[in-house]
Design goal:
heterodimer, A: 115 residues, seven-stranded mixed sheet, four-stranded antiparallel sheet, B: 112 residues, mainly beta, six-stranded mixed sheet, 12 strands
Chain lengths: 115, 112
């Protein structure tokens, strides 16, 4: 089975530009999570979806960040406008819920650099 | 809220040394506990997990026991290898579809 697929792997752009990160969860997984990793703050949960519905977006840092999951096989995380402090590695993870605590499966991440 | 505290790194050991990475947590209810490993340039991979008190998770020679009385989940390995060099994250979740709460990560360096 293919794992969680994220694109792009690397993104370099100038501040003020719109950035869109993409994630394809593992087929059959019904919960999807977006995390951000920085040296200063470590790994932080930004938002998660269950059955395509946003459940908790309390980790989204500002209104410049938005996330959508239009169907079970695709999610986007958008930053508009982007700022240098948004530079980080963004991870997507997915899980099939129900029947005990299953581990989350992570993608390889998108390394974002805002100049 | 939930929180995870793990020892700061980097931790530098010689090959075949004994490894302990401490992890303690604060959580309501009965969380599930995990250790994830991150190799350079890669995403996080599950190393082991435990879902209830006194459970022992194990994988690739690594072990960790869920200690509710001390709210700990320390990672151990009897004889480390150079290939174990990575960043190790302790994490917890309240269960179901909850997101993970991570520790800050411990960078492990194994020297030949």
């Amino acid at each position: 089975d293919a794992g969680v697929i994220q694109s792009p792997r690397h993104e370099v752009t100038e501040m003020g530009q719109e950035v869109t990160l993409r994630c394809k969860p593992i087929s059959g997984h019904n919960s999807l999570f977006w995390y951000r990793q920085t040296m200063m703050r470590g790994l932080e949960l930004l938002i998660y979806f269950n059955n395509n519905v946003p459940i908790d977006d309390s980790g989204m840092p500002e209104d410049r960040f938005s996330a959508k999951m239009p169907n079970a096989s695709f999610s986007t995380l958008k930053i508009q406008p982007s700022e240098p402090r948004d530079s980080a590695v963004y991870f997507c993870a997915s899980i099939r819920t129900g029947g005990g605590s299953q581990p989350q499966h992570f993608g390889d991440g998108t390394r974002l650099s805002i100049l | 809220g939930n929180s995870v505290t793990q020892m700061e790194g980097p931790v530098t050991l010689s090959e075949e040394a004994f490894l302990t990475i401490n992890c303690t947590y604060t959580a309501t209810g009965y969380p599930s506990l995990f250790w994830y490993v991150q190799y350079p340039g890669e995403g996080l991979q599950l190393l082991l997990k435990a879902t209830k008190a006194d459970d022992k998770g194990s994988n690739k020679g690594f072990e960790a026991t869920y200690r509710k009385e001390t709210t700990s989940f320390h990672l151990e390995k009897g004889s480390v290898q150079v290939s174990d060099s990575a960043v190790y994250f302790c994490a917890l979740t309240g269960g179901g579809a909850d997101g993970l709460t991570f520790g800050k990560g411990t960078h492990l360096i194994i020297q030949p």
